[in-house]
């Protein structure tokens, strides 16, 4: 999703770091969604516990990988641009990134 920004003279649409790879991210999320549906089917069909746990680990790994990819793009694009411009926006973007990293580490 793009965000409108008022620059004083005109309103511009800002794009986020993942914009250029949006289709790839959506495809990846569709695969993860399929994995989660597979887990549901496994439980509905009374699959062996270890098999369910193995698939759960695969889903967790896929989600972590997706999150790290998004974080990387955020750092390169959003944080990078803000730091280049300096000021309060840079401080805010760095704080947001630090908080996001902390959430990922805790999960």
Task: Outline the structure in words.
The chain has about 110 residues and is mainly α. Helices cover about 75% and strands about 5% of the residues. The chain contains 3 helices and 2 strands. It has helices spanning about 20-45, 50-85, 85-105; strands spanning about 5, 10-15. It has a two-stranded antiparallel ribbon with strand order 1-2. The chain is elongated. The chain starts with a strand and ends with a helix. Residues about 1-5 have low confidence and may be disordered.
List keywords for this structure.
single chain; 107 residues; mainly alpha; two-stranded antiparallel sheet; 2 strands; 7% strand; disordered N terminus
Give me the side-by-side strand order of the main sheet: 1-2
N- and C-termini, Cα separation: 25 Å
Number of E strands: 2
Percent helix among the residues? over 70%
Are there runs of 5+ residues with pLDDT below 50, and where? 1-7
Provide the fold topology.
Blueprint: E1 3-6, E2 11-14, H1 22-44, H2 49-85, H3 87-106
Antiparallel strand pairs: 1-2
Keywords: Copper
Protein name: Metal-sensitive transcriptional regulator
Organism: Streptomonospora halophila
């Amino acid at each position: 999703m793009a965000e409108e920004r008022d620059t004083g003279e005109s309103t511009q649409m800002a794009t986020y770091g993942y914009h250029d790879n949006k289709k790839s991210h959506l495809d990846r999320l569709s695969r993860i969604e399929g994995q989660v549906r597979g887990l549901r089917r496994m439980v509905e069909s009374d699959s062996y516990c270890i098999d369910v746990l193995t698939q759960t680990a695969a889903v967790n790994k896929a989600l972590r990988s997706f999150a790290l990819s998004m974080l990387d793009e955020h750092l390169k694009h959003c944080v990078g641009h803000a730091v280049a411009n300096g000021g309060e926006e840079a401080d805010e973007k760095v704080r947001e990134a630090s908080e996001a990293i902390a959430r990922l580490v805790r999960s």
